[in-house]
Amino acid sequence: AGPPAPVILWSGGLDGWKDTAIEFKQSLLEQGFAVFAMDLPGTGESQWRLEATSERIYSRAIDYLKTRPDVDGSRIAPYFGSFSGAYAIKLALRDPDVTCAVDHSGGVHLFYTPQVTELPPLTTSYGMRATATIHAMGMTGASIPDVLSTYATFSLKHQGYFQASPKQAPLLTIHGTEDDLMPVQDVYLLSEAGVKQETLIYDGAGHMAWDHTDDHQPKMIAFLKKHFGMD
Question: How far is residue 18's CA from residue 39's CA, in Å, rounded to a whole number?
Fold first, then answer.
């Protein structure tokens, strides 16, 4: 009801698909946002392979949203969690149609350049995630060196994103200091490189800082409303 609403472009990680977190998405609708949910490339029902430059797929989704009369295409913000978080950073830095962006515990550089020589066993959590990543990249059956060299190309540092941008959209980063998947040091590397970001770093929290949802969720919504001009 009412005028066209600003849009949150939602995407998750290797195991957080577009039809998960329905209650959270419903709460965003109740706050006055529209929500457009997509699977991370290489997962769920996505028709594309996961690549270092997969942000172009999200940019095309933004192009599409700008054509819809029932939403406000001049106010669009990616809210990306876990593996997709890096693409929220890239869109904030380079896509002129992004109003603001939220990176919820994404990787930046260290996550993509692990010092490993072999995959962990499939029976471990790390092993399952490694296998899911290889599948998402379309590299099932490839050698470990080939997988790691391809994976390293995902690094935002290697792609030239470690620099300030005068046209950068406001960026909010949410992370935990004990994240055993995406190292919190990546957040600090990004700031040290000159990228502007507001941060919510939770001491002792693991991946996605779920135990602190009651704190970071309303702050994230306030961030979006501020930059959408909804206050």
Answer: 5
